[in-house]
Design a protein that fits this description.
Layout: H1 2-20, H2 22-47, H3 53-56, H4 64-85, H5 90-113, H6 126-153, H7 163-197, H8 204-226, H9 230-251, H10 256-279, H11 295-298
């Protein structure tokens, strides 16, 4: 089986290294600026009637659509980064999903602006303003809680799995990440096709989050093979539940989406605090769980 794990790492590691390279991120940032400016230019040309009919049909007439498109590209970048963090710890992968949720809330706030007339007026748009405030402040609270969540994770001890088990476990998670990357590409191409032919397809990010929830459950089952203790199963299952609540937040109407998103991260924080305070012993503490043998092995991180 080792050659299979070697092949998975051989396929995943170069892609991961390429994506995380600073030069790649710099090029993406520059391309994003040009994408935003090109969107503004196309929208302005469409407003003035200078575009051919076939292009005018798919080009919006509100400048704030360019902001929405730009944030969509940023979200695509973050989703790819999420896929590459899957071989890391479960808690880090969940944290990345909260980052994406915060950006989605900000994008929703800008999407509300697309319904405004130009120049912007307040009268007749009171509910849209309330939704903007809800999504904006919800994203801000999520951002603050996410910082606290990451601070808690730094206190948790690293995994003490045997080297062979750890290598196989990480390689298996790399294989799942490769499958998710392939699904991401296929779903992305399909969403683009639907946009140009129908323009009323389901939101790509909402659909892909469903796949992520299923992948998280698969990771929980996979981790049980190397960490069968109740502690590890409960902890990883709890993190998977928080991602399920995120998916519910994406499907919820305005105001409820923020409440569900905040509930998801509060649940993850409480889970991490209980884990840190009660189940991660200090160096001078004795193991508090005797039934599973060596505590550090049975409660190692994912």
């Amino acid at each position: 089986m080792i050659p299979i794990y070697d092949r998975i790492s051989w396929a995943f590691d170069p892609l991961h290294h390429l994506w995380e390279h600073e030069r790649i991120h710099r090029k993406i940032s520059v391309a994003l600026v040009f994408f935003f400016l090109a969107g503004l230019a196309l929208i302005e040309l469409n407003r003035r009637g200078f575009l051919p009919p076939w292009l005018a049909q798919i080009t919006p007439g509100n400048h704030f659509y360019a902001v929405q498109f730009a944030f969509s590209v940023v979200l695509l970048q973050e989703v790819i980064s999420l896929i590459f963090t899957i071989p890391c710890s479960f808690s880090r992968s969940v944290g990345k999903q909260f980052e994406i949720l915060a950006l989605l809330l900000l994008r929703n706030a800008f999407k509300e602006l697309a319904a405004f007339s130009e120049p912007i007026v307040f009268d007749g748009n009171q509910m849209a303003v309330l939704r903007i405030l809800s999504d904006g402040f919800g994203a801000l609270l999520l951002f603050a809680l996410l910082g606290y969540y990451y601070r808690i994770q730094q206190r948790v001890s690293e995994s003490k799995l045997a080297a062979t088990d750890l290598y196989r476990f990480v390689a298996a998670k790399k294989g799942i990440a490769l499958v998710l990357l392939l699904i991401f590409i296929v779903m992305g191409v399909h969403s683009i096709w639907v946009f140009f032919h129908d323009r009323h397809g389901e939101d790509f990010f909402h659909s892909f989050y469903t796949v992520l929830v299923l992948a998280d459950i698969l990771l929980v089952l996979l981790s049980q093979c190397v960490q069968p203790s109740f502690y590890a199963v409960f902890r990883n299952s709890g993190f998977a539940l928080s991602t399920l609540i995120i998916r519910l937040a994406l499907a919820a109407p305005p105001f409820y989406n923020v409440l569900l998103g905040l509930a998801a991260i509060v649940f993850a924080i409480l889970l991490s605090l209980v884990n840190t305070i009660l189940f991660v012993p200090k160096k001078t503490d004795r193991p508090i769980i005797q039934a599973t043998g060596n505590y550090r092995h049975s409660t190692g991180r994912d």
